[in-house]
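ok trying again, last paste got cut off:
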Amino acid sequence: MKLWGGRFSKETNELVNAFNESLSFDQRFYRQDIRGSIAHVTTLAKSGILTDAERDTIIEALKGILADIDSGKLAFDGTQEDIHSFVEANLIERIGDTGKKLHTGRSRNDQVALDMKLYIRDEIKEMDALLKELLTTILHIMEENIMTYMPGFTHLQKAQPLTLAHHFGAYFEMFKRDRGRLSDIYDRMNYCPLGSGALAGTTYPIDRAYTAQLLDFYGPTLNSMDSVSDRDYLIEFLSAMATIMMHLSRFSEEIIIWNTNEYQFVELDDSYSTGSSIMPQKKNPDIAELVRGKTGRVYGALMSMLTTMKGLPLAYNKDMQEDKEMTFDAIDTTKGCISLFNGMIKNMRFNKDNMEKSAKNGFTNATDAADYLVNHGVPFRDSHGIVGQLVLYCIEKNISLDDMTLEEYKAISPVFEEDIYDAISLKTCVEKRTTIGAPGPDAMKKVIEICREYLSK
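nice, full thing came through this time. structure:
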């Protein structure tokens, strides 16, 4: 059944039908489409456009269609153009002419705008829940590793010592911001387009505020042209997903590096690894690599959507049908990556001794040696040069700062005394960094408590 055949005297070319149809992908809207139709006929009855009996007959049949799709009794057979015509055709088949009244005061333009908003709203909630699960896993690792020393890096070079809790805390902040973005998008998009018609509203006296209330929107949209052609919220959602994937990809990159033979910071669980078809010794970080790789896929969806929308005049244009497949794929990809990544790090084992050894052997305490000199009256610029000489000496001798004798220290600067060893120990280097946001245990405990309170809401 076509919703628009009256004006046409020739059948549509079959290739055009295939090119034009969207049921193959917008069928995933069926719950949202039926929910929107139930709200629409409820409003029509409230406005006196339908009788209460007609409303009840339509709603009962719509609920029956929903139940039959859910159970598999009613299948999408591909004979309809889109999910809207599929539902309406089945409605008319079940209740006759009364079903033909469903579309009164409504266009497919505002109908699909509603369906997409309802769907995206649901997906935002699901993605937020997945991010909260990931944050819970990260927080647990932070709680368990306040005193797990490791090197911090800049430029992929060892920089200063910190803790695993502090390192994971950086990602906690990233994913927390991601949740904030999703919440912002939800609030900005949560206005109901139904009742906007094709582009100029409707002459029927429908109560759009009531429809919005039935569907848990904050209120109706305020411009009918914008209502049917707005895809800003999709672009924002795709951008938020691209940012989530960027964070997952950065995290994955570090895990891939930590998993190498050269680092051996982590041991991936067998259930989240794969082997080689030719090299029996291999245990590959495929989940992390696939997350890193799939990030480009989500970026592509964002760029595609921006490109689709950039030249469209008001109001609705068929180009907008291209919003669905790319968005669906990006949603499925992002949700899958969050879930799998969460499982991977939850089951990952940390080689704490290797982490600490790496921090000791990478001159990560060099800055603290410089601070030691400053605290003993040496200007910082001079202390920087002195410690540079220490590092060069250690490189030549293939030792660490901790391995130098006091005589070797004094040969470079007489300021050094026995307390230098305590000053440059990993424990001291980390613990004396007590400002909020630093890796010291007291500061970390305060941050962890803030994180716990955040997740409890």
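cool. The beta strands are 149-154, 157-163, 266-267, 349-350. The chain has 19 helices and four strands.
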